[in-house]
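Researcher: I'm preparing a figure for a lab meeting and need a structural model of a single chain. I don't have an experimental structure, so a prediction will have to do for now. The sequence is pasted below. Please return the structure as tokens so I can convert it later.
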Amino acid sequence: MRIVLYSLLVFAVVSLSGQSPTHSGIHSEDMDTTCKPCTDFWRYVNGGWLDKNPIPADKSSFGTFTVLADANRERIRTILDAAAADGSAAPGSDQRKMGDYYSACMNTAAIDARGYQPFQADFDRIAGIKTRADLMSVLAGFQKTGRPFGAINGAVVGPFRLTSGQDPRNPDRVIARIVERDGAGRTGSSVFSLPDRDYYLRDDDKSKQIRGAFLEHAAKLLELAGSTPAEAIGQAQTVLDFEKSLAASVMTIADKRDPDKVYHPMDLAALKSLAPNMDWRIIFREGGLPESTTVNVSEPEFIKRVNQQIAESPLDTWKTWLRWRDLQLAAPYLAKAFSDESFHFQSTVLAGIEQAPTRWETCANYVDRDLSDALGKAYSAKYFPPEAKRRMQALVENLRAALRDQVQQSEWMQPETKKLAIAKLNALQVQIGYPDAWHDYSEIKIDRNDFFADVRAAWTWGEHYEISKIGKPVSHIDWGMTAPTVNAYSSFNEIKVVFPAGILQPPFFDMDADDAANYGAIGVVIGHEIGHQFDDGGSKFDATGELKNWWTGEDRAKFEARTACVVDQFNSVDVGGGLHHNGKQVLGEALGDLGGLSVAYHAYQRSLAGKDGPVMDGFTADQRFFIAFARVWGTKMRDEAMRLQLNTNPHPLAQWRANATLENMPEFHRAFQCKKGDAMVRPAGQQCRLW
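Model: Understood. Here is the structure written out token by token.
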């Protein structure tokens, strides 16, 4: 996590387009006007589109985000096709690396011919484990990704991942981190085969069904890798039992969202005391770390349980599990039989996707992931003009100024807390479109004829890069998303918000649309990400990015009472089939939506400087603002994907990101003349508001 000071620029009036808009931003053909806006606004805005657009067979959900992501992927395809065909590109250049990587991925005949040979050396190393010391040597080796075994796609063939991260208590330094799940406990790759701890522990019929499907899946992959059918069945059960034995020690997703609960810095002596059966010296040595390195252990109880299993689980159990994990992580990059089986479980069983994407889409995604800066640089140059960045910067600053107004006008915060909140807002760095500097990939060796080796080479480079940060001053260059990504994020420790070029396109950001539509769409996204700095987690970091309480006791209690309102609201939402959100799990994102919508509306009104916005296509400016907001969440999901999101994701489901948020907004109620008792109006005493 990082700290960057950023001056606050205040604009009395900001017009996004800087010219007369050519359209209103309203798409009446996508609406369902038979549904009353005060009954189900999400349906009112999106019903026509939802009815006309079934979920494609290769997707778990379909909506605004996926439509734009598909369009971006087509843009990426033009770049990669040209790179692959460019025989004049200099050896070692980004153009050549992208083209060779993409070509290697597209060469399925060569991939199929290799079978599972690419990681046979890993299997041999695992098979050679004879003692506990051998086991520790292999586990440590898998942390050192510069060897022919190790991490692939963000997960490690081992019980935890050693990586780097900004010190939450000292944001000027980078320390080592030991994590069960990369991505601050919210998203990312886990050391487990199933999506979350509860998949091992719940006894409901659906959970049992998924565990049964996993046993079949694991047995099929293991059989493809050389086990007999009988051996594979037994090995699959061993894997499930072993992972279940670890699962209960893992924190829930809701608990992992609390930065205080995942901060446990330790030196080597403390690590030895925590887990004496682990040979920490060899782990440090294989990772290239001095023994003086400070390590943040995000989940000590989990490491204690791993330590116990080092001593108690038979070596054959460890060998079976390590062999399985190596196979599971490698399967998507292997011969068709392996990749098809991996897709079946990960995408069909867990997310309901009926059909794999085309090969070019898969390969484009891999290039975006593994050579992200090379592709991002080409994408931004071609599809994100400087004028778009300039206009986005102006919009962001008006949102910042609007939130500053809200904080200053807050009736429940004391002056001392307001001052510190505004200092943090002023310090917030905003990065738009693409990073300020690009990574140098000259050390990555890409072979046009060996896709698996390319994947491993790219990830090994990435892991080396992450580990190399430890003990050095914090860099503020790196992004956690690629430039073509249709998303945005907020970093607490860095005091930074990032808006990739991929999302800065219609319908989120339309340079030819009226301001009401842009403030309702991308304006709310901006407000959401800025607001994360003041959600239940972000509010624990001060203006320097330090995990430190800067609130008065009274104000913190009032803040938590306001957030409890949101928890209660989402706990009570019935999403169908007897399923509910976990209010604490989705709190941060729900607060981002609530605060983002409020500040974006305030920013839009501020931009009008006391004037009324224009009526266009029969809708007032305020109505178009809220329609644009709900249109962003015009998404339908498969039942399996919905269940997976409820179980593992900190974001509420799309329908309730729109409706549940608007239920708390008197400004929305006025715009559409909603009245007490309407479904879109929460009782006055239950309406949630942060500022």
